[in-house]
């Protein structure tokens, strides 16, 4: 049973436009979410996180939105750059007292120059 | 460079064999996590250690075991290997026990033939 789902395996976006990556979850106890970026032959790199007490968190070109009622989060990248081409994973945890993250299967983003 | 090191980078072995994967966390990080990424799958959490003690277990098979040593490096032991154990194994570290960003190593690619 996949508790964290990234239903789009891939996404192509033109350079300079917005990239929107989506993630859905089923466990209402999840209250901390992260996005990771992964380049080939490297480990995932932490990108941005959001706690369930917020509905938005911004860091430069990256913004994560959380809709708790819909159990949905999204990562917006504006403007998209060719260097953003990578696989993006969302992950969720149940917060303090739980020490593991559940990862989605990833979305491969390709930013076209 | 995340500061997390993993050795070896690649490992090819036969079914039925036993291997040991090694991880050194970032300086100062007390938590170590092990993940398995099979083809086209997300990262599956295996196990977490905090300052030498096991803190959380995920989908780790009984044939697999791990430990964290006093110098905080960790080893993941995989025995009676099967073809399905072929995967990327990632180690990650963080400073605390929960809700901290995890920093990933480059992974060890295990191929069981």
What's the layout of helices and strands?
The complex is a heterodimer of chains A (113) and B (113).
Chain A (H helix, E strand, L loop, with lengths): L3 E2 L4 E5 L4 E7 L6 E7 L6 E7 L4 E4 L2 E6 L4 E6 L8 E8 L8 E2 L3 E6 L1
Parallel strand pairs in A: 2-11
Antiparallel strand pairs in A: 1-3, 3-8, 4-5, 4-9, 6-7, 7-8, 9-10, 9-11
Chain B lengths: L4 E3 L2 E4 L5 E6 L6 E7 L6 E7 L2 E5 L6 E5 L5 E5 L8 E8 L8 E2 L3 E5 L1
Parallel strand pairs in B: 2-11
Antiparallel strand pairs in B: 1-3, 3-8, 4-5, 4-9, 5-6, 7-8, 9-10, 9-11
What does this structure look like?
The complex is a heterodimer of chains A (113) and B (113). Chain A is mostly beta strands. In chain A, 0% of the residues lie in helices and 53% in strands. Chain A has strands at residues 4-5, 10-14, 19-25, 32-38, 45-51, 56-59, 62-67, 72-77, 86-93, 102-103, 107-112. In chain A, strands 2, 4, 5, 9, 10 and 11 form a 6-stranded mixed sheet that branches. A 5-stranded antiparallel sheet of chain A has the order 1-3-8-7-6, with no helix packed on it. Chain B has strands spanning 5-7, 10-13, 19-24, 31-37, 44-50, 53-57, 64-68, 74-78, 87-94, 103-104, 108-112. In chain B, the strands form 2 sheets. In chain B, strands 2, 4, 5, 6, 9, 10 and 11 form a 7-stranded mixed sheet that branches. Chain B has a 4-stranded antiparallel sheet with strand order 1-3-8-7, with no helix packed on it. With 113 residues, chain B is mainly β.
């Amino acid at each position: 049973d996949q508790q964290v789902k990234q239903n789009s395996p891939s996404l192509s976006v033109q350079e300079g436009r917005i990239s929107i990556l989506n993630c859905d979850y089923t466990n209402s106890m999840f209250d901390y979410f992260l996005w990771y970026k992964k380049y080939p032959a490297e480990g995932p790199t932490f990108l941005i996180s959001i706690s369930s007490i917020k509905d938005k968190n911004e860091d430069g070109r990256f913004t994560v939105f959380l809709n708790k009622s819909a159990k949905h989060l999204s990562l917006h990248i504006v403007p998209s750059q060719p260097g953003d081409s990578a696989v993006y994973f969302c992950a969720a945890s149940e917060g303090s007292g739980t020490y593991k993250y559940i990862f989605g299967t990833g979305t491969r983003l390709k930013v076209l120059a | 460079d995340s500061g997390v090191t993993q050795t070896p980078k690649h490992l090819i072995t036969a079914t039925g064999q036993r291997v040991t994967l090694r991880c050194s966390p970032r300086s100062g990080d007390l938590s170590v996590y092990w993940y398995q990424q099979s083809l086209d799958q997300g990262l599956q959490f295996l196990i977490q250690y905090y300052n030498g003690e096991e803190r959380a277990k995920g989908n780790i098979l009984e044939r697999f075991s791990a430990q964290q040593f006093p110098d905080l490096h960790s080893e993941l032991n995989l025995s009676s290997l099967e073809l399905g154990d072929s995967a990327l194994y990632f180690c990650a570290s963080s400073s605390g026990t929960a809700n901290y960003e995890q920093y990933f190593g480059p992974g060890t690619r295990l191929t069981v033939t």
